[in-house]
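TICKET: design request
STATUS: open
ATTACHED STRUCTURE:
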């Protein structure tokens, strides 16, 4: 079987994990947590990083610390992994689902701009939806598949409003807009290290921010908000969202390999561009101008999506359809959906992701290309 996207454990993982086990530093404190945080901060060019148990918890805490209140709205793209929207619901807030651009598959910025201009108003330093006068507490751009939102334009639009930005950059470790790393432009950036992300700790996440006080708050609230080193005194309802040292040790080893992983993802993408261009009606995600993507999860677009999926999976090549749009999930179907030309639906019906693990061989990539070709030859 050729898997879709699996972890690549090829460096110092065993050695660092053994070090944790040998020294008994397996749990919630330890030097690998600090090292992993430092490495993320350095790599992304953001001064502070706080490790979390997964990407979803990183988003949840970022929403809370951005000031999202119960009953608030948060703007989020309609095409994303469900965790983005779940993190909003965890704050008892509601999503405003924004349709995406048909070419780049990122939040549609024309639509966002007109929505903000026509359907919102500002009062006392906050932004409100005209329809029900409820506050809009934050906006969450998602850098879908490691391609990115056009961040100059996005920040230009958003800067006209009192609207904190939490970047869901969980898929975009190693992606750059101009010389700025994904996740480095908002109030917070969030990363994920689950099994299929570009680096993996099994499960894990990270918050990055330029604000030292917010970073301290994030550390505090993710570690049960204990306010006294000796007494069990806690000064608010905190969370047990910390990443354990054993997993941070895996993370340090994975970070050491990240430049190589990015290079390999880009080589795989190039092989697919070369091998699949002109095959049937296949199209690719349009990379946003000024973006250097990490090519995390290679995804193609074709009207014969279901046939290609079936043929690949029948040939033991793992491939997956794109996420069901958020407005079609039972728990979000009644939320506000700002749509344009039914774009989310057509992306859902035509896109599929194909194998691109960093340890896939060149021969396997050619097998995938050949097998896709068979569908269009018939
Ligand atoms: C992976 C992912 C997350 C959540 O990360 P976990 O570590 O699995 O909790 C959030 N948003 C998006 C867009 C993702 O792809």
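STATUS: resolved
RESOLUTION: sequence designed for all positions
ATTACHED SEQUENCE:
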């Amino acid at each position: 079987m050729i898997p879709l996207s699996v972890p690549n454990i090829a460096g110092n993982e065993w050695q660092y994990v053994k070090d944790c086990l040998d020294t008994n530093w397996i749990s919630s404190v330890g030097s690998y947590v600090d090292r992993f945080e430092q490495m993320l901060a350095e790599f992304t060019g953001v001064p502070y990083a706080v490790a979390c148990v997964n990407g979803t918890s990183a988003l949840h805490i970022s929403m809370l610390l951005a000031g999202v209140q119960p009953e608030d709205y948060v703007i989020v793209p309609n095409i994303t992994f469900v965790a983005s929207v779940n993190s909003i619901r965890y704050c008892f807030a509601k999503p405003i689902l924004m349709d995406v651009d048909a070419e780049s598959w990122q939040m549609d910025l024309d639509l966002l701009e007109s929505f903000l201009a026509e359907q919102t108003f500002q009062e006392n330093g906050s932004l409100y939806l005209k329809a029900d006068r409820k506050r809009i507490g934050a906006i969450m751009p998602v850098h879908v598949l490691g391609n990115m939102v056009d961040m100059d334009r996005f920040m230009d639009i958003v800067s006209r409003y009192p609207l904190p930005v939490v970047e869901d950059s969980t898929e975009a470790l190693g992606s750059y807009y101009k010389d700025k790393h994904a996740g480095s432009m908002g109030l917070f950036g969030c990363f994920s290290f689950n099994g299929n992300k570009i680096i993996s700790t099994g499960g894990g996440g990270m918050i990055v921010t330029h604000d030292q006080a917010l970073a301290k708050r994030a550390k505090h609230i993710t570690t049960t908000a204990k306010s006294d080193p000796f007494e069990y005194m806690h000064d608010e309802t905190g969370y047990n969202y910390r990443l354990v040292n054993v997993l941070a040790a895996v993370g340090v080893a994975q970070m050491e390999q990240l430049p190589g992983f990015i290079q390999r993802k880009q080589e795989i993408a190039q092989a697919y561009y070369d091998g699949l261009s002109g095959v049937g009606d296949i199209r690719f995600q349009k990379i946003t101008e000024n973006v250097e993507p990490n090519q995390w999860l290679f995804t193609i677009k074709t009207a014969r999506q279901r046939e290609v999926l079936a043929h690949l999976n029948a040939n033991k090549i793992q491939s997956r359809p794109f996420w069901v749009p958020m407005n079609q999930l039972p728990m979000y179907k009644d939320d506000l959906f700002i749509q344009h030309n039914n774009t989310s639906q057509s992306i859902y019906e035509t896109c599929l992701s194909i194998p691109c693990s960093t340890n896939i061989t060149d021969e396997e990539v050619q097998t995938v290309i050949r097998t896709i070709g068979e569908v269009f030859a018939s």
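CLOSING REMARK: Residues 245-276 form the longest helix (32 residues). Residues 54-56, 80-81, 83-84, 142, 168, 170-171, 192, 194, 205 surround pyridoxal-5'-phosphate (CB under 6 Å).
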